[in-house]
Fold this sequence. Notes:
With about 300 residues, this protein is α/β, with parallel strands linked by helices. The protein has helices spanning about 1-15, 20-25, 55-65, 105-110, 115-120, 140-145, 165-175, 195-205, 225-230, 245-255, 265-275, 285-295, and strands at about 40-45, 70-75, 85, 150-155, 185-190, 210-215, 235-240, 255-260, 280. The chain is about 35% helix and about 15% strand.
Amino acid sequence: MKDFLRTVFMSAALIGTGAGVANQTMAAEPIAPSLNPNNILNVAHRGASGHAPEHTLLAYELGQKMKGDYIEVDLQMTKDGELVALHDETLDRTTNGSGLVKDFTLQEIKQLDAGSWFNEKYPDAAKKEYEGLTVPTLEEVFEKFGKDARYYIETKSPEVYPGMEEKLLEVLEEYKLTGPNVPSSKVIVQSFSAESLKKLHELNPDIPLVQLLWYDKAAEITDTELEDYKTYSIGLGMNFNRIDEAYVQKVRDHNLLIHPYTVNEKKDMHQLLEWGVTGMFTNFPDRLQEVLKEHK
């Protein structure tokens, strides 16, 4: 019965239905505005990563200051089973280390410089304070930003890290970011791995999930695929440069949220908003905030 009520209510919230359906689900917690398709989400991709070294506490803090609705955290897992905020499976691109994350302990990874690379790659945006930044753990992110923030978390390469989903839920519960008294939009989990999302859905069906997709050519999607995604997720995220208005509307017609990535130019932001997306990921949340103001 609980799952039925949740399904009914989630569907109602996603299409903005009124009091008739709401009255049928009085026991369910109202869906938060951030999961309402009429409120466009500004997701700070890896933090404000156009301005500061990605997946550092400084980048996340800057993303919040620039009115990002969510802190996006990509997860990898260390040799000793700790969840850390890194996009790549390897340390090479964004630290002064080298090798696979899974082959190093947290203590070893904490010795690395996760900020100086940004200054070298983007000298126009370089700052002295970026030198020596460290790779944060998921727990450090929660300790820094607390329950007032919202988190858009991705399980990266979960097939490489057995137990990643259980560990994620353990940390979320430890920091009281999931449970009956927590808004369902406090945390969204996304992944390219349907298996990872389905596992999370089985372990905790109350956490909103988003299926990530990648298209090499013009995006096409069937009604059957969309209905399958709806069995465990509330929305889809895909590379924005392969979709069009018809695609966006088809996803919306199936009462799914759509959060394309990674949108950094204002003209593309305007176009996607015209097409009807319900949010987007950007390295420049300040730019998207300006566009959202112009779009009202």
